[in-house]
């Protein structure tokens, strides 16, 4: 899980650099805010679950609590981003959010072709 959190931040900063070069600072900051609004709660969730690792009896409840906390923090950070930085470009913001939130599907899950010869 910690690899996922680190990978999210690395990909987010690399894409922000690309957007800064191509479209400028407002798009790069919007991408960073969108990605950070999901990456920060993910990092907190990972740290919380690592804290509960020595207590296997709390694993189920800890996971539900961590995911609930992640959803709530994501919503708060998304709304807060628009108040803190009013020049947000929504498409860049949404792209950062989607890339960070779906990175696990793109990098870590393997799709196999069933029925191929």
TrEMBL record:
Keywords: Cell membrane, Membrane, Transmembrane, Transmembrane helix
Main localization, broad class: membrane
Membrane topology reported for the UniProt record: Multi-pass membrane protein
InterPro entries membership: ATP_synth_I
Keyword Disulfide bond listed: no
Chain segments annotated as transmembrane: 7-25, 31-52, 64-83, 89-109
Gene Ontology CC: one annotated term: plasma membrane
Top-level taxon of origin: Bacteria
Keyword Zinc: no
Subcellular location: Cell membrane
Protein name as annotated: ATP synthase I
UniProt source species: Simonsiella muelleri ATCC 29453
């Amino acid at each position: 899980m910690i690899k996922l959190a680190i990978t999210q931040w690395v990909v987010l900063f690399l894409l922000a650099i690309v957007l800064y070069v191509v479209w400028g600072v407002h798009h790069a900051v919007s991408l960073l805010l969108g990605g950070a609004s999901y990456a920060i709660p993910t990092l907190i969730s990972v740290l919380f679950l690592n804290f509960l690792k020595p207590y296997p009896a709390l694993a189920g409840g800890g996971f539900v609590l961590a995911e609930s906390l992640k959803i709530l923090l994501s919503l708060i950070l998304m709304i807060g981003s628009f108040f803190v930085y009013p020049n947000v470009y929504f498409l860049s913001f949404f792209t950062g959010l989607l890339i960070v939130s779906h990175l696990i599907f793109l990098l870590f899950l393997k799709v196999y072709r069933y029925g191929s010869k």
